Amino acid sequence: MAPGSIVLLLSVLGVLGTPALGDPGPLEDVVIDRYYIPRVCLREVQMGDFIRYHYNGTFKDGKKFDSSYDRGATVAGVVGVGRLITGMDRGLQGMCVNERRHLIVPPHLGYGSIGVAGLIPPDATLYFDVVMLDIWNKDDKLQITTLSKPERCNRTVENSDFVRYHYNGTLLDGTPFDSSYSKGSTYDTYVGTGWLIKGMDQGLLGMCAGEKRSIIIPPFLAYGEKGYGTVIPPQASLVFSVLLVDFHNPKDGVFLEHLEVPESCKRRAVTGDFVRYHYNGTLMDGTLFDSSYSRNHTYNTYIGKGYIIPGMDQGLQGVCMGERRQVVIPPHLAYGENGAGEKIPGSAVLIFDVHIIDFHNPEDPVEMETVYRPEGCNVTTRDRDFVRYHYNCSLLDGTRLFSSHDYEKPQEVTLGTNKVIEGLNTGLLNMCAGERRVLIIPPHLGHGESGARGVPGSAVLRFEVELISMEEGVPEGYLFIWHGEPPSSLYEQMDLNKDGEIPPEEFSTFIKTQVAEGKGRLMPSSDPEKVIADMFRNQDRNQDGKITAEELKLKSDEDQEKIHEEL
């Protein structure tokens, strides 16, 4: 009980007939007992204020003569302008919202010697039990309190913006009347276009996404004298606790923020390029709705061709390889009013934090950069040459894939035999021994959409190659070629012991002699013996382990026979 109410209470007890020193006689003024005072009292009733309150009215004997509770409606009126009995005008002065008082109103401050016919007899002392529910004044303004605000706020709500917000709505006494949380969805609407009550239209202006506000709206900026349904009484002040989830304007385009751009950006993505990127997708309040990182796989797509939402199509234009970019997309360039699935609400602004791994165009050739080329480079590699080379292979984001340095010797390959990816074969052509190059190989000249073991699908590859050595090759389909005309009596020279047949040992000895004397050369290989064995197997037509004169034929003669057969 508040200090000072003890004296008042003693007076009341005397009037009610509780034993006292003596009857003090008729009351001269209203007796007030403030039997409940809220801890927080932001405002007290003053003359000229509009108020809403509930009450029970009784006589001294406890008989009820009136009650707002019985009518199911609060009483609304103005204090101190003669619309209430004088005792009530005085007794309500200084009350706080939710304060409760017992008032004893003497007859001369109530209905006097006349009373109210059939209800209140003449010279009746009236007892009121009052609870104050609402206080406001026609000069009141909107009361806005910022409860929390993000550190970063690039933009605030303006008229004509479309907002999505959560709210709890209560009357001034704390009685809840509505909540978006109970409906499981935000309240979505335009600001400043008459779709909201005036107070909310004003109260949302200047808010940041993620900001929380308390907005106290006087009745004349809310539902006024009519109230709203059964939940908002007439002349009710409204209190909204608002969390702004996101907002945008129908005229908004895509907003880009370049978080990290590589110093070296030789090329930027354009329409028709195929882009591989990682992303985190969040709503404006920070709620994560999707992430490529969670799937451990980049998102791969063409840009500018309608395969992705329009905002992302626009937002990826001009990116560099390795760039980190934030793309803010309004709903009309994303999933619109319907949203997508359970995680993207209707009319949601989407924020994508994107990391570009690589991109290419289906028309791209191999990009070659010569890092070192020896002086006096007169002989360069051609198709069918046998080359030895070292290489390091990585993705464009620096992820290491393979390296020949992990093995004991360099990589070996005959160029033009489809033993390596097309882009690497192209990049090894026209090189000198000792030359070093950097090759950028698009996926259609690499491992394609499917990728390979350890290589992601549609990945652009970076090779650092060094040509160690090269050997001149032979034409396609040949294992050995003569530097001049072959001997006219080839079989007789090959039959070293003149026994009329050529076993593998004689064949191998003869071929090695021709190579050693510079009369011909084998197809380059790390295993010449295997090449010679293949040659022998080709000539031993019946596979009996020896070559006869009828079986031995030059490849050029075989090719001519095929032409005649076709003719």
From TrEMBL:
Catalytic activities: [protein]-peptidylproline (omega=180) = [protein]-peptidylproline (omega=0)
Top-tier EC class: isomerase
The enzyme's E.C. designation: 5.2.1.8
Pfam families reported in the protein's UniProt record: EF-hand_5, FKBP_C
Main location: endoplasmic reticulum
Entry's Gene Ontology molecular function annotations: calcium ion binding; peptidyl-prolyl cis-trans isomerase activity
Chain positions covered by the region annotation Disordered: 537-567
Signal peptide annotation: 1-22
Subcellular location: Endoplasmic reticulum
Span of domain PPIase FKBP-type: 48-136, 160-248, 272-360, 384-471
All copies of domain EF-hand, residue ranges: 490-517, 527-562
Keywords: Calcium, Endoplasmic reticulum, Glycoprotein, Isomerase, Metal-binding, Repeat, Rotamase, Signal
GO cellular component: endoplasmic reticulum
InterPro entries attached to this UniProt entry: EF-hand-dom_pair, EF_Hand_1_Ca_BS, EF_hand_dom, FKBP-like_isomerase, PPIase_dom_sf, PPIase_FKBP_dom
Domain of life: Eukaryota
Function statement: PPIases accelerate the folding of proteins during protein synthesis.
PANTHER family the record matches: PEPTIDYL-PROLYL CIS-TRANS ISOMERASE FKBP10, PEPTIDYLPROLYL ISOMERASE
Protein name: peptidylprolyl isomerase
Species annotation: Zapornia atra
